[in-house]
Amino acid sequence: MTKFRAKLTLILILLIGCSMLVAGIFMAKVLESSHVNSLQENMERELHVIASSGVWDYQGTDAELIKYYTAQAHRLKDATTERLTYVRADGKVLGDSDQLPEQMDNHLTRPEIAAAAKDGIGYTTRYSDTLKENMLYAAIPVKNEAKVTMGYLRISLSLAQVDKSIRSLWYFLVSGLAILFVIAGIVSYRIAKGITRPIERMTKVAQQITNLNYESRVPAYRNDEVGQLGQAINRMSESLQGQMARIQENERRLQGVMENMMSGIMMIDREERIMLLNPSAEAILGFSSQELLGKKYNEAKQQYDFTKMIQECIELQEPISDEMMFYYPAERILDIHLSPIAHEDEEWSGVLIVLHDITAVRRLERMRSEFVANVSHELKTPIAAVKGFAETLLAGALNDKETAVSFLQIIFDESERLNRLIGDILELSKIESKRIPMNFSPVYLPEFVDRSLSVLRKEAEKKHIELSMTVEDDMYIEADEDRLRQIIINLLSNGIAYTQDGGKVRLRVEPLETNADGDYERLRIIVSDTGMGIPKKDLPRIFERFYRVDKARSRSSGGTGLGLSIVKHLVEMHKGTIRVESEVGVGTKFIIELPVIH
Ligand code: ADP
């Protein structure tokens, strides 16, 4: 029970209790006086009844009179239980139901008798010396026909009896009051509860809202002021819930953007502490949020020039952008943008740092310019040869027929090479820019390999090279047939080119990774030769564009240095892998692994 409810209950109980007490006392007083009144009326009536039976007719001596009236008094007392006294007009007591008249003094001066003589009826309440208790007296004068007072009749009642009946009156009153009081208490409590309960509910809801529980609502109460307050609280919490949902939605969106953006975002607050770091920034800087958040930017173990840049931005209060080489966690080039964050009311509230990893972009740019340089260089050589021999011919070599023919043959060969070179460059750039779509279809391998070999058979025979193949029957692969052929012919022609006369070039196709049904999911194509091999130091680079182990030999074999890099691209377009194993003087083995189904 709350303090307020207890207080309210107490106040209500006190109010009801006090008014009941006042009403009770008043009622008791009224009851008491009406009780005494009715007693007195009864006594008067009894006195008149007794008087009407002609009490004063008896004649005789004093002693006789006393005897007679005393007997009379006793008789009447037996009937009424009230003390009866006969007093003669001169005040002498002639009879008494409780006392001997001889021992009683003159009663004319008794207040009730005096009042009776004066007003016709007299009442008093006083302590009786004779009976030693409080008594209520009532007396009337008894008159004859001539209206002469013959004497007085007096009856008295022990007040103990009156008190007893008043006490029982009080007893009923008090017990009634007590019951009423309990009922009042219960009613007060219910009333207080009725008033305070909605307030308590509202307080609870308000507390829950403070604790971010916006779903909490005040139950619908009556339509009075308390009910309206409840409704107002409900509307407030609804609006808060809506606003909070919007804020959370925005926060989620912002969080989503921050988490998924490629750029690294870092924020530094007024106190120069790092207060925000998105996952990209973590990856770029090689530090986790836990390591950096809350740290001062200059204590965050960052590269010196980066820290310096932030400091400069804070000092200048101006945006700064720069490209910077980072060496941790890996060597990278970063494009860094710093801008001070300013709000209208404040000078500045921090620095926003945006980091872009432009290593790949720069590397690509470098590769592109290198490629252009390589291409120019590669093109220059055959053109220089064509130009040189043509010049020599023009200068007069034309006259020597034999020389002229050999020169023209060189010019033809070089232009042929130029043609191949341009063809390869175009092919490579097409593949690299991913402009050509893949055209997958099932390829029946035994037939396909056989046909590819037959293209090169002539060339092999020229060098007396044994060309052989091993393919299991009923082997299929899903592939772009033209590109798969390009791969195989390129590798086989390299094998033939870099193998001495009388050597061997072999092609083997074998299934790989059979599944539960016994079907293969991948297959391996191996092109091996017994040629000169590739030195170990060159192995990692042979798939690079224009890379040749021995320029002179490659040139004499008509190579462009682009064949393997085209092969590698084509294999990757088939989601396969290619690797090379080689030993100088023993031979070379290119191993391709391809998935069967796309
Ligand atoms: P090229 O047109 O010069 O053959 P490739 O890209 O096809 O260019 O090959 C790159 C280089 O790899 C070749 O110049 C050669 O030195 C080496 N190479 C390729 N295949 C073989 C092989 N089967 N045996 C020995 N060396 C090879």
UniProtKB/TrEMBL annotation:
It is a multi-pass membrane protein. Signal peptide: none annotated. The keyword Kinase applies. The keyword Cytoplasm does not apply. It is an enzyme of class 2 (transferase). PANTHER family: SENSOR HISTIDINE KINASE GLRK (PTHR42878:SF7), TWO-COMPONENT HISTIDINE KINASE (PTHR42878). This is histidine kinase. It comes from Paenibacillus allorhizoplanae.
